[in-house]
Amino acid sequence: MEKRGIDISRYQGQPDFSKVKTAVDYVILQAGFGRYASQKDIEFERSYAECKKYNIPVGAYWFSYAASPDDARQEARACMEVIKGKQFEYPIYFDIEGSACSGDVSAKCKAFCDELEKAGYFSGIYISRSPAQQYLNEYCRTYYALWFAEYSPTGLHWSGDCGMWQNSSTGRIPGISGDVDTDICYFD
Predict the structure, then answer these.
(1) Which of 48, 53, 67, 93 is the most core-located residue (most Cβ within 10 A)?
(2) Which helix (H) or strand (E) holds 106?
(3) End-to-end CA separation in angstroms for the chain
C-alpha cells in the first residue's frame, strides 16, 4: 500500500487545497520549529483547517535546533502546545537535520518522541537517509516511525523498515505555486 503525499510549510504560501486534494492522499504540515510555541509556522493553522475541510489526512513535523536531549524535550512541549486539540491521521515527526544532526542524535530523537508519546501522540523521526545510517541507534531505527529524505532516481537506499520516503524537493502539485516536497508512505 503506497500513498502519495506532500509536506509543506510557510514556504508554499497558501495552497488551494481544493486542488491539492485531487493530487495527494495526505499532507504533512510544519507545525513550527525551535523551543517556543511562538515559533509556530505562520501557515500551520490555515493549512490544518483546510486539510480538515477537504478531508485530507494530515500529520505534522517540528523542525529541531536541539543541542541536547533537554532541548529536544522543550521542543516537544512547544510542539504539543501548538498541536493541542487537533486530530492527526499521520505521525508527529521530530525533524532533525542541519546543526541539530550532531552529538547524540538518538538521545535527542528519543527525548522528543517520548514526550509526545507520553501525551498520547504517535511520534516519528524525519531525517536524511545518510545521517540516519550514521547516527540513529537500533532502538530509534526500530521503535519509531521513520521518514527519510533521499532524492535518488534509483530509490531509497535503506535496508530496514521505513514508513515514509521524501523522494523530491522539486515536485509539482495542483494548487501550489512552485516546488513542493513529495513523499511516499508505505504503512497505514
Answers:
(1) 93
(2) helix 105-118
(3) 8
Average of pLDDT values for 101-119? 95
Q: Has this prediction a pTM greater than 0.90?
A: yes
Half-sphere exposure of 52 (CA within 13 A, CB side): 9
Q: What are the respective helix, strand and coil percentages of the chain, to the nearest 5?
A: 35, 25, 40
- How many CB atoms within 10 Å of residue 70? 12
Spatial separation of the C-alpha atoms in residues 25 and 108, rounded to whole Å: 30
In three-state secondary structure terms, 156 is coil
pLDDT in tens, 29-61: 999 999 999 999 999 999 999 999 999 999 999
Q: Is 180 exposed, middle or buried (0-12, 13-18, 19+ CB in 10 A)?
A: buried
